[in-house]
Amino acid sequence: MSGLAVLGLAVSLFFGVLLFAALTIWAERRLLGFYQERYGPNRVGPLGLLQVIADMVKIMTKENWIPPFADRPVFVLAPTIIIVTTLASFAVIPLTPLVVMSDINVGLLFFLGMSSLAVYSVALAGWGSNSKFSLLGGVRAVGQMVSYEVFMGISLLGVVLQTGSFSLVDIVRAQGRLWFVVPQFVGFVVFFIAGLAETRRIPFDLPEAENELVAGYHTEYSGFKFAMFYLGEYVGVTLNSAMIATLFFGGWQGPWLPPAAWFILKTAFFVGVFILIRGALPRPRYDQLIAFGWKLMFPLAVLNLAVTGGIVLASGH
Amino acid sequence: MWSILRSIWIVLKRVFAPKVTVLYPETKRRLPARWRGRIVLTRDPDGEERCVACYLCAVACPPSCISLQAETREDGRRYPGVFRINFSRCIFCGFCEEACPTYAIQLTPDYEMSEYERKNMVYEKEHLLISGQGKYPGYNFYRAAGLAIKGKGKGEAENERPPVDVKGLLP
Questions:
Q1: Any chain A CB within 8 A of the CB of B8?
Q2: Predicted local confidence at residue B152, as pLDDT
Q3: What's the ipTM?
Q4: Residue B12 and residue A280: Cβ atoms within 8 Å?
Q5: Which of A37, A276, A281 is closest, CB to CB, to B12?
Q6: H or E, element range at B39
Q7: Which 3 state secondary structure label does DSSP give B162?
């Protein structure tokens, strides 16, 4: 691809992902409303679709305030990290057979690395805010990420073993006959739960925990810097849904419809599942969360890896 | 594990449940008759103002949003020359209605009083006074309480008892 085409693709991908994340915010508010026998925002624009724009206008016209007790450079830097890392991960995801920003041979590792870097955003926000609630949220986020990153990576190794490649393009192509959700069902479940923890959403929203920590790591944030955290969360949800669709549900593969439509449909479905789980489940205690991660999910992921490795070895390719 | 899936399923089923939200401007709730909303001044069956400007409502009002000025008619009947309610302060407690000895001031089931300018929330007498009798049709304070006429005080006519001595302790 020429440089101009790459640039055009990058810009359109950037705005496409942001638009999808904005729609996700709207969908979450509407769907949560339906789950709670309400309507959700339905006034601004048709079906309330323009509510996100109204919120954006409101949040951008707010004062850009930094608390006097905060560590200024860290405080300002933290929200940008989450949005940069989550958006950068989209570069390696194949949207259609032809459209992929960069088909690097370690695309999966790039995704894992970027999602690990996102922890810095939360941790630095908690530290830089210099307030007790924020620090508690940041500490919780770090502890949670340390436990969940590990088996998130291991749960994906089954897919890598079956494909024989870290490239997401190859992984999608390998699912032509059978989606990886069938042979790698355990891996899918573990990765889904790790994805929930990764995006810090209920039931794994302990870093935020508004009942205990006001708003956790972004207690001190307002205006556009808060919007970046907020948008980063939904871009993260979109990213994890897209990764689930890519790794376990055949990415753009599917009959009748064009590949891009299949990819967007699958992503939207998993965004819906994320929202449904947020609407349904309570938040566990912190020690329960860590114990769940290390004592149940981690052995499950390792077992899945071992069994997959054994089968791949035995079948002889 | 099973309970988690079950609770997700229960929540998902709620999508098809009827919504509890009342979409307000399109559908309006039916208000009870005793709803405490916009305050009005009513008239007696003869079409006269019921208010006798006794100031009891202004005294009872917790946020002191009622102000009035008593004046006397040529026949000796008192009426409010100025009657002003500041609805931006009113808390719609209904104490003025309870305090009123003549059922003049009443609260009505109307709450749509929004204004773009705050000073429009101050209602003058011409905004408050209605032509009807409100919740107590047929009630006339002077018929019930009696009225001193020329040469004859309260309770001195036939079939009348003298008025209660409000300062005495005897029943």
A1: yes
A2: 78
A3: 0.73
A4: yes
A5: A276
A6: strand B39-41
A7: coil
Q: Is the CB of B15 inside 8 Å of chain A's CB atoms? A: yes
B162 and B154 Cβ atoms separated by less than 8 Å? yes
The answer to whether B7 contacts A281, with C-beta atoms less than 8 Å apart, is yes
Show residues of chain A in contact with B26, CB under 8 Å.
none
Ordered per-residue pLDDT tens for chain A, 317 residues = 577 877 888 888 888 888 888 888 888 888 888 888 888 888 887 888 888 888 888 888 888 888 888 888 888 888 888 888 888 888 888 887 777 777 788 888 888 888 888 888 888 888 888 888 888 888 888 888 888 888 888 888 888 888 888 888 888 888 878 888 878 888 888 898 888 888 888 788 888 877 888 877 888 888 888 888 888 888 888 889 988 988 888 878 778 888 888 888 888 999 999 898 888 888 888 888 888 888 888 899 899 889 888 888 888 75
CATH code for the domain of B113: 3.30.70.3270
CB B67 within 8 Å of CB B58: yes
DSSP A188: H
pTM of the model: 0.77
Which residues of B are less than 8 Å from A280 in CB distance? Answer: 7-8, 10-12
Give the sheet arrangement for strand B66-72, strand by strand.
B66-72, B78-86, B122-123
> At B166, which amino acid appears?
V
In a domain, A304, yes or no: yes
- CA dist B135 and B106 (Å) reads 8
Does some domain include residue A161? yes
Tell me, yes or no, whether B21 lies in a domain.
no
Domain assignment of residue A226, given as a range: 63-315
Residue A201 and residue A24 in contact, taking contact as beta carbons nearer than 8 Å: no
Give the minimum alpha-carbon distance from B16 to chain A in angstroms, rounded to a whole number.
Answer: 8
Answer yes or no: is B19 within a domain: no
A-chain residues near B10 (CB < 8 A): 280
B3 is a domain residue? no
For residue B87, the enclosing domain spans 28-134
Closest to A237 in 3D by CA, of A268, A206, A282: A268
CB B155 within 8 A of CB B163: yes
Is the residue at B169 inside a domain?
no
Q: Which token pair is A92?
A: 């390696």
Q: How many domains does chain A have?
A: 1
A26 within domain boundaries: no
Which residue, chain included where needed, has tokens 């401007």? B25
Q: Which of A30, A35, A273 to mutate to probe the B interface, most B CBs <10 Å? A: A35
Q: Which residues, 6 or more positions from B24, have their beta carbon under 8 angstroms from its beta carbon? A: none
Give CA angle at A205 (A218, A127), nearest 5°. Answer: 35
Whether B11 and A35 lie within 8 Å, measured CB to CB = yes
Dig out the tokens for A124 from the structure.
Answer: 């630095």
